[in-house]
TrEMBL record:
<keyword id="KW-0503">Monooxygenase</keyword>
<dbReference type="InterPro" id="IPR029731">
    <property type="entry name" value="OSGIN1/2"/>
</dbReference>
<comment type="function">
    <text>Monooxygenase catalytic activity. Involved in regulation of cytokinesis; promotes RHOA activity, probably acting locally at the midbody in late cytokinesis. Monooxygenase activity is involved in stabilizing transient structures between daughter cells, termed intercellular bridges, before abscission. Regulates differentiation and proliferation through the regulation of cell death.</text>
</comment>
<keyword id="KW-0341">Growth regulation</keyword>
<keyword id="KW-0221">Differentiation</keyword>
<keyword id="KW-0597">Phosphoprotein</keyword>
<feature type="compositionally biased region" description="Basic and acidic residues">
    <location>
        <begin position="484"/>
        <end position="503"/>
    </location>
</feature>
<comment type="similarity">
    <text>Belongs to the OKL38 family.</text>
</comment>
<keyword id="KW-0521">NADP</keyword>
<dbReference type="GO" id="GO:0030308">
    <property type="term" value="P:negative regulation of cell growth"/>
</dbReference>
<dbReference type="InterPro" id="IPR036188">
    <property type="entry name" value="FAD/NAD-bd_sf"/>
</dbReference>
<dbReference type="GO" id="GO:0030154">
    <property type="term" value="P:cell differentiation"/>
</dbReference>
<feature type="region of interest" description="Disordered">
    <location>
        <begin position="481"/>
        <end position="503"/>
    </location>
</feature>
<keyword id="KW-0285">Flavoprotein</keyword>
<keyword id="KW-0274">FAD</keyword>
<dbReference type="GO" id="GO:0004497">
    <property type="term" value="F:monooxygenase activity"/>
</dbReference>
<dbReference type="GO" id="GO:0030496">
    <property type="term" value="C:midbody"/>
</dbReference>
Length: 503
């Protein structure tokens, strides 16, 4: 692959010079991206001169979308009116550009179709926008910290980024993708190699922790000042850089969500999958040990149930929803594609604790050793390793446990922003949450409401799936490109972009 804009890489790295404590105005970068997971990687690809066009031979199964694309076939997708193209499209995302880009990259994939994408990618280095991508670890972000043997929820092709088929890459590594899915370890390796193969590596500065992002005035106008620490030669050294635009792509896996009940800080109460692995390594789990209590009804909780069951450890499983609640993730997954999660859902349904109970229930049925507690909440943890649960009807159960795993989601670490980023949320003043309170952005540019020049993408705007976060990259890259071409910034209404007259 060609190196995307090498002429800018030296400039970007000079901006990270650890000998300086500030950057003079001539060193202001056009764009800084905070976060080097798949969101930041995809945006870097688009900002490095890789541009999507409608292929002359391409067609889309949606005739209305195909007709719209043919109105200006000579223009790249980055130059077209995204709001116009999004009109009438429906999909499994609340962000319209995410639905559009997903439909173009994976036409009708939700219906099991395997249509080729009508897009063709061209490398146009003159369109590249200088930028730098900051991340704490290697490219791939949180995927490097996930348990490496579990299968991903998404199909393998949903995890890939533009320009490199995941299956082709896996095949070159002499591995096969099981059931059209891959492990987090494979996905993390794919993202890391993607950066190298696409010539993006000089854009990425890893080993950095951002501690402050503030808008400041410089001799040439307003800019974003980014301060933090960078690991180098075993030490953490301070850095500061300035940028005209800043993009938040940090994800939401930084801070595990907590129940907020008495005793949650006791040593046997854990909040991460890695702590389960540590308990296994220490020999605290097993057939003869007291039960493991898993709290939560998401996929990470299901993975913990499967891991504990693999050791024949007794499991108690408590969660707030009913097993037939449509919002429960297990009720949204095809059984054929996700047999292991279907099995956990069967366990949750068939092995329920019932009736008025005040002590440890007995285990019976098809899954000995496992008991679920639907529509229960945790009241307290006690130092003697007892947990008090309460059901919807007010009945209480006291469980003797060896380890507790509270796996109820996570929150982003936005401590580098004023007010931890809360003023930027859909509900200002409330903690930022991917599901309950994402950052409020313009749906067609992903620029933060009330903060011109600040953008957000990925889980921070409610996108948990890689297949949809790529739409945020398209929206941001298109808006940044329009600004650099002097076509005007978006302020209130839509930018004046080419679109066909109404028929």
């Amino acid at each position: 692959m060609r190196n995307a804009g090498t002429q800018y890489s030296d400039h970007a790295l000079r901006a990270m010079d650890l000998e300086e404590d500030h950057i003079v105005p001539r060193d202001v970068l056009p764009v800084v991206v905070i976060g080097n997971g798949p969101s930041g990687i995809c945006l870097s690809y688009l900002l490095s001169g890789y541009v999507p066009y409608l292929s002359p031979e391409g067609s889309h199964p949606n005739p209305i979308l195909h007709s719209k694309l043919q109105h200006h076939p000579h223009l790249s997708l980055l130059e077209q009116d995204l709001e116009y193209l999004c009109e009438g499209l429906e999909g499994r995302s609340s962000n319209p550009v995410a639905v559009l880009f997903d439909s173009l990259l994976l036409p009708d994939s939700d219906f099991g179709a395997d249509y080729p994408s009508p897009l063709v990618w061209r490398y146009e280095p003159e369109r590249a926008i200088p930028h730098v991508v900051l991340g704490r670890g290697p490219p791939g972000g949180a995927w490097h910290a996930m348990e490496g043997s579990m299968l991903t929820l998404s199909l393998a092709n949903w995890m890939e980024l533009p320009g490199l088929k995941l299956k082709d890459w896996v095949r070159e590594k002499r591995r096969s993708v099981r059931n059209d899915r891959a492990t987090p370890a494979e996905i993390a390796s794919y993202y890391q190699h993607y950066v190298t193969l696409m010539g993006l590596q000089e854009r990425f500065v890893c080993g950095t922790t951002v501690t402050s992002l503030r808008r400041v005035s410089t001799a040439t106008g307003e800019a974003w000042r980014v301060s933090g620490l960078r690991r180098e030669a075993g030490a953490e050294l301070p850095f500061t850089l300035y940028a005209e635009r800043a993009v938040l792509a940090t994800g939401t896996h930084d801070i595990p969500a907590r129940l907020g009940v008495p005793g949650e800080g006791l040593p046997f109460v854990c909040h991460g999958f890695s702590e389960l692995e540590a308990a296994i390594a220490a020999g605290r789990l097993g057939q003869s040990a007291d039960p493991v209590l898993v709290v939560g009804a998401g996929l990470t909780a299901a993975d913990a149930v499967l891991a504990a069951r693999h050791l024949n450890a007794p499991v108690r499983h408590a969660f707030r929803r009913a097993v037939n609640d449509p919002a429960l993730i297990f009720n949204q997954l095809p059984k054929v594609l996700y047999p292991e999660y279907h099995k956990v859902h069967q366990m949750m349904t068939q092995q329920q604790a019932g009736g008025e109970t005040s002590s440890e229930p007995t285990c019976s049925g098809s899954y000995p050793g496992y008991v679920s507690f639907p529509r229960h909440r945790v009241l307290a943890f006690r130092p003697d390793r007892k947990c008090v649960l309460e059901g919807d009807g007010g009945q209480r159960t006291v469980l003797q446990v060896s380890t507790v795993l509270v796996l109820i989601g996570s929150h982003p670490n936005l401590s580098f922003l004023p007010g931890n980023g809360q003023p930027l949320g859909v509900e200002p003043g409330e903690p930022i949450s991917c599901r309950r309170n994402p950052l409020q952005v313009d749906p067609y540019t992903h620029e933060c409401a009330g903060e011109p020049g600040l953008y957000a993408m990925g889980p921070l705007v409610g996108e948990n799936f890689v297949r949809f976060l790529k739409g945020g990259a398209l929206a941001i890259a298109a808006h940044l490109g329009r600004g650099r071409r002097g076509e005007g910034e978006r302020s209130g209404g839509r930018d004046e972009l080419p679109r066909a007259p109404d028929s």
